[in-house]
Amino acid sequence: MKIVQQLQALTQRAITQAYGKEIDAEKIVINATRSDMDGDFTVVTFALAKLLGDRPDAIAAKIGEALEASAEDVSGVSVVKGFLNINLAGSFWRKQLEAIKDEDQFGYAAKKGIKTAIEFSSPNTNKPLHLGHVRNILLGWSISKLLEAAGHDVVRVQIINDRGIAICKSMVAWQKFANGATPASLSRKGDLVVGDYYVRFEAEFQEEYRAWQNTPAGKAALADVKVKEGEEPAKKYKNTYFNTISPLGKEAKEMLLAWEAGDPSVRELWSTMNGWVYAGHNATYERMGVTFDKLYYESDTYLLGKAMALKGLEKEAFYKKEDGSVWADLTDAKLDQKIILRADGTSVYITQDLGTAHQRFEDFGMDRMIYVTGDEQNYHFQALFAALAKLQEPYADQLYHLGYGMIDLTTGKMKSREGTVVDADDLMEQVVAEARANAEERAEITESDASTRAESAEQVGLAAIKYYILRVGPKKRMVFNPKESVELQGTTGPYIQYSYVRAFGVSARAEKEGYDAAAGGAYNELAPAERDLVKHLLTLPEVIEQAAEELDPSQVASYAYALAKGYHRFWHDHSVLSAENEAAKAFRVGLSHAVAKTLRTSMDLLGISLPERM
RNA sequence: GGUCCCAUAGCUCAGCUGGAUAGAGCAUCUCACUUCUAAUGAGACGGUCACAGGUUCGAAUCCUGUUGGGAUCACCA
User: Fold this and answer.
1) What's the CATH code of the domain at A9?
2) How far is A175 from A197, CA to CA, in rounded Å?
3) Which nucleotide has the shortest C1'-to-CA distance from A47?
4) What's the domain range around A56?
5) Helix (H), strand (E) at residue A277
6) Strand B–CB A334 distance below 7 A
7) What value of ipTM does the predicted structure carry?
8) Cβ-based neighbour number of residue A215 at 10 Å
9) How many angstroms is C1' of B63 away from CA of A325?
């Protein structure tokens, strides 16, 4: 039982003793005592004043007296205005620590029998993963771990957007300019190669468009474009040009049609180039420590979506317009009319999502489904959920969309077209290099060999990136400062890792050298730093529960940081191996052991691994 | 115009279901290393919690409105 609940029960009894009235225990407000006041927990009595017909300070005094007399774990009380500060005995905290120290899955909830599917990352197959994906992947992975810790059965899925005009652009450019080059012949990651040709296509297209603008036909067409003030005709006309005039655009569109028709040579090129991308993406995922249970491909599910649309028509959940297009009326969900199928029977974005959702339910029978995407898709998911509700899909009321805020670079907004994206691979490489440089500088202190240093640099660099991004609440738009993200000091992953290195190192050494573990039972006068650590350790289950409930890894990030900080402070003031006596030593070894274990648990929930040396 | 998200120290961010004098990190300035690993610790400096009302014994937190920033409202994904 949680300590606060125990105290509520005790306080409830004390009130009955002092006033002869029964108060609902849950209504008694008990908070952690402010750090600058003496005490562990504080009963806030203002709300009780009316119920008991007494003044807050008098209530605090009377409850305090009763508590001190009857509760053996209460070592002292003090009253400040209406606040009753309670001190719990050192032996109480010592016993609490002993109870969790070797608990295998401390912080994890029992299985709830709820199956949750979570979709994240879900890239296009025409380019490498970039900074936006990094936030998506880290959030998705961490939330999936949190849900598992909270007792859910989790299935991690992706929908891979492997078809469409974008990949066709890469394919056209590759055919025209690559001379048969492959990732192997270029010694370059496959996703980067395909991305190169996507960029090449865009560059060639820009050039073609610019040249056309200077032809008589181009000038005439642009002169007719109506624009608002500050808008450029050429920019506004670009899509129209691509779709109706551009030779390159025509090639790409013909390729898309050939793909849809199942043209064997186009399909073959398509699957070859997608294969390159998958190999590249997988390498990136692997380095990030992320895996998926099941992948869905848009090239499969867009057909399923069409079936869903037709089912919707049968059920009269959707309706057909005169031109043959299929629509959903979502006005009762405060949304608009939403198209489900085009007049020519081809699918739109939402169509494949309908199909994918249904297929997943067939595959897994999940109770809940969580989508992690950028918040620019908030409206899309509202519409998707409303449409699934209209179809009366059984899981329709258990769908969640987590739209995270855009991640901006310090230099400005992140736009792939302007070439200011930070590539995921480059980012990891840069930060790991920084960590390596740091480790080399400290090589004398750590007395480690080169391969150990390289390994820990990898862990440290990745921790820096992951922590930097996950410490911010998901919905908040955040600024990514490349310089600052490399920083290994302050509120960072490496700071926490260092705390772990200390806690783990010292407890492992004590185990190895041997100490009198039983002596700890005599240690009942905890120093403030020790008491704070034990208290903080004990809150892990609540932190996990709430973070999972709110789909918010940043709460765990804060928790881990506070724990690491507390341990650093403790370390500074107290010696473990050369403690004053055997009792103190035994207690501190146990404390260090528990801190190390808890840091490991909480950082694991963020997808961050901890080195034993650094 | 409709809907949604955001606004806290110079900068980047915490602040749980309303509780005491709003907290960290970075930056700036001090101090502490022949270490159980100083990638650390201690201190100083830094605030009209966007603004205005309301609810309450009590509001950064809840409600309403205003302002500012962003997203979205495509037969794009």
Assistant:
1) 3.30.1360.70
2) 9
3) B57
4) 3-88
5) helix A264-288
6) yes
7) 0.95
8) 10
9) 44
